[in-house]
Amino acid sequence: MRWRFVRSVAGKEILSTLRDHRAIVSNLVIPLVLLPVIMLGLPLLMGGLFQRETTTVTEVAVEGRAHLPADLAALIEAQNAVLIDVDDAVEAVRADRMPAGLVVGPGFAEALASGTRAEIAVVGKEGNLRAELNVGKLRAAIDAYRRALVAERLVAAGVDPAVLEPIAVVTRDASTDAERSSGQLAWLIPFFIAIWTLTGGQMTAIDATAGEKERGTLEVLLVAPVRRAEVVFGKFLAVVLFGLSAAVMAIVGFILGGTVLRTIFLPMLGDEATGIVSMMGGQLTITPLTVVLLVVSSVLMASVVAALLMSVTLFARSFKEAQTYVAPMSFVLLIPAIALQFKDLIGTGGFAYWVPVYNVMILMDDAVKGAAQLGPTLTAWGTMAVLIVALLAFALANFRREEVLFRT
Amino acid sequence: MIEVRGLTKRFGDVAAVDDVSFDVAPGEVFGLLGPNGAGKTTTLRVLATLLHADGGRASVAGHDVAREGEAVRRSIGVVNGGMGLYDRLDGREVLHYFGRMYGMERGAIDRRIAELDGLLDLSATLGKRCGEFSTGMKQKIVIARAVLHDPPVLFFDEATSGLDVMARRAVLDFCRAYPGEARAVVYSTHVMGEVEELCDRLAILYRGRVIADDTVAGLTEAAGEADLERAFFTLVRRSGLATEGVAA
Question: Which of B50, B85, B93 lies closest to A223 in CB terms?
Fold first, then answer.
């Protein structure tokens, strides 16, 4: 293979794609913006909303306010709530006049005084996040009141309240800081990188194969004394570059977006909201090693996707037909990404790092959690390298098949 | 310059090219005349090493098409009617790209572009993106691309298809002037008038077979007709391969 021919083919494809404004937007701008918005903006938004709901004074509809003991009312009001007398608490919540309510029956105070079972209803809307948050505040206040009442009665009866909890269960978290802060949305990073290598590379791949066939330029190119392998490898490099550029922009967007959002917005939130942000993936630990692992894995992912794109799109007679072939490929990438969510159940020992695509997704997940290890990393990268060679050989074989090249 | 012997190319059960033989000498414009589906493009694709022959042999500029593909491709240029170009590249960039594909250095490509500008008047096309070209401009760059490396053999395949009268005339004049003494042109078309004007000799292809091979005068005389179009139908009918339409 002669490098100057490969470079010329790649250079032409790169120049052609760079002059396509649609490709620039989809390759560079969208991944730069979208990943930080979803990975960091969404948890921060939710954290902010949680913060607002916990600090905002909530109006609670109370039906039977006269029967509510003053000390229970005080506990509820301590949760940033103000009690509003209403005739029908259920109706008030249903009509969204108030996010939560209480129904206190006429016998509530008497039942408490006599030591029999007293009933109080908490009113909310299931599935409504704001209502559930405020119902939680009411339940917390009532529970605190209940526990105080139980303790008071046990002491009055000469019994130590500790008798109710003969076993104290303590949970000790064995996860590392990176694992703890990687959050529930961490799997989105490898998924997005996989999707962006496909999105970023597909325009170039289709244009360089089915597009060239449709325009009639492929035949003219192959009439020149350039070898098929040089054509295939040159086009492959251009597809990898654009797939990779999209993935790298997604990573850059994630790092920059994360820094800006954390620096500016996180200090504005309280401790509880910060906890939610962390749980959902808003505080991933990105070290230089993480970046290296993500970039190398992205290069391999982009190369597999590029070789696959080249093989598939060359079969198409036209640009449009090639687009219909490419569309299902995102589902192919979706399957390992979904499996990644269940990797704790599936297990990552043994076979998992030998399964191409899935293995680098696990590796990326490991990387952002600071859990990557040398052996599995080399296994995953080696397996991907073998697959890339096999797919490139398949693409080259297609470029040599008359029925594929002249399928018009 | 070109020697074709018993060339055969099959697609499944269909023989697109069936035992075709002809020769083209230096300085000649040789015509391949036939209707659509006669096997003209398939023949040229085999000669250009894009397709592998199933039988027979052929050589171009002294190189065997089956064994010396790269040498053959260095010796040929192709002008086709598709006029396919890269819309987002300008004329100069297209020519530089193909120049590099022929192993030419940047300076040599620029000098050749300057020469071809004198022959084809490329000035309006060199700095303009191909997506903005008129049909005539496209065909100028397609011709320039084909002869950039000064090949000894040039193939024209339905090269005037879709061209207006001015652009068509430019193609025909260039084709007539190109061979000189040391180069050869194979001109494939279904247009009788173009063959009569351009070709020193021609082969009539019908259903993949050469049914006649001679000068225009020789063919009309052999057919006993006054012009090439009438001679074509007479020779096809005599070949025994004629469809009902031709026989009528």
Answer: B50
Residues A184-228: tens digit of each pLDDT: 556 677 887 888 888 888 889 999 999 998 888 988 899 999 999
Q: Choose from A2, A220, A317 for mutation: most chain B CBs within 10 A.
A: A220
Q: What integer pLDDT is reported at residue B163 of this predicted model? A: 81
- Identify the CA nearest to A200 among candidates A25, A9, A395: A25
Partner-chain contact B51 A406, CB within 8 Å: yes
Contact B52, B91 (CB under 8 A): no
Ordered strands of the A81-85 beta sheet: A81-85, A58-63, A100-104, A120-123
Has the ipTM of the complex gone over 0.95?
no
**A:B CB pairs within 8 Å:** 70
A4 to chain B: closest CA residue: B100
The CA R_g of chain A, rounded to the nearest whole Å, is: 30
Query: Per residue in B131-152, pLDDT tens?
Result: 999 888 888 899 999 999 999 9
pTM: 0.80
